[in-house]
Amino acid sequence: MNSWLYLGEVYHQRFYPREHRLSMKLFYICFPLSRISELSNKIFSVNRWNLLSFYTKDHGDRQNSDLGVDLGGALRSWALAKLRSAGFTYEITEIELQTMPRVFGFVFNPVSFWYCYHGRELVATIAEVNNTFGQTHSYVIPSDQMAHKKILQVSPFNKIEGQYIFSILKTSEENEVVINYKKEERPLLMAKISGQAMAWTIGNLFKAWWAHPLMTFMAVFYIHLHALILYFKGVPFFGKKGI
Fold first, then answer.
1. Parallel/antiparallel/unpaired status of strands 20-32 and 102-103
2. Residue 117, strand partner residues
3. What pLDDT shows up at residue 62?
4. If we measure between CA atoms, which residue out of 130, 139, 138 comes closest to residue 110?
5. Which of 42, 65, 96, 150 could make an SS bond with 57 (beta carbons 3.0 to 4.6 A apart)?
6. What is the pLDDT of residue 64?
7. Pairing verdict, β 174-183 and 147-149
8. Mean pLDDT of all residues in 9-14
9. For residues 96 and 35, what is the distance between their CA atoms, to the nearest angstrom?
10. Alpha helices, DSSP H only, in the chain?
């Protein structure tokens, strides 16, 4: 049985210049691109509206909406091009994509992760980051070099400076990604998403949705709610340009 469904939590902790925490229970999916067609069932569709769904146009170059047989082909080609542009020479045998699905046709993914394997070895991860200004940037993270300079503005309460340090734990039963954001040696923020794997069944999908029926809408609500809280806490606001 494929364990492509994860029930878990996202947690953020801001350290500077004011302490602030937020957490949200959620579910997400993580599946091999080569087996994308196996996602479809009565309540989950690929490139079609359903209670839960995954659209290829939500990722990669944002242009692919193929309804043909090779659903994951354009996504895989995009990921391989990203790896090549970063200087990777590994033969990638499989890519798994971790993301939130659409709920009632709506989704906003602050970050999705593309796990790139050479055989059974995780050799690189692509962190596909989106902000609420409609911008996106993908960080290519070699498994032996988990730090990356910040390039895209995410929170308007931070500048575009410093670096991210990624930590990834991935087994057949659990998944955890921790992102520590630092400027020089000063920790600014820590973000973590973690989950326990569940079998990909209609019953489990329905239970996950029933526990979090408006998850993707609530994600956007919490982003703006906590932005308002940070504003009233007096955290400096740098806006879209982060300067």
1. unpaired
2. 94, 122
3. 83
4. 130
5. 65
6. 61
7. unpaired
8. 97
9. 10
10. 73-85, 202-211, 215-232
* pLDDT for residue 240: 87
Pairwise CA distance, residues 181 & 155, whole Å? 12
Are the C-beta atoms of residues 193 and 176 closer than 8 Å to each other? yes
Q: Hey, what amino acid is at 156?
A: P
Beta strands 52-54; 44-46: pairing state: parallel
Domain tally, the chain: 1
In the chain, the largest separation of any two C-alpha atoms, in whole Å, equals 52
Kindly state the tokens that stand for 57.
């146009």
Buried b (16+ CB within 10 A) or exposed e, 153-181: bbbbbbbeebebbbebebeeeebebbbbb
27 assigned to some structural domain:
yes
In this model, does residue 65 exceed pLDDT 80?
Answer: no
Mean pLDDT, range 83-109, rounded to an integer? 95
CB 57, CB 63: distance < 8 Å: yes
- State residue 172's pLDDT score: 85
Kindly state the tokens that stand for 220: 């956007």
| φ and ψ of 200, to 5 deg | -80, 85
Is 93 in contact with 117 (CB distance < 8 Å)?
yes
Look over the chain and give the mean of its residue pLDDT values, rounded to a whole number.
93
Cis amide bond preceding 17, omega within 30 = yes
pLDDT score at 72: 84
Q: In the numeric block, which tokens belong to residue 60? A: 């990669």
> Distances from the Cα of 228 to the Cαs of 80, 129, 134, 156, in angstroms?
39, 22, 19, 11
Structural domain contains residue 80: yes
Handedness of CA 15, 114, 83, 220 (dihedral sign): negative
pLDDT at res. 90: 84
Q: If you search the block for the tokens 């209609």, which residue do you land on? A: 202
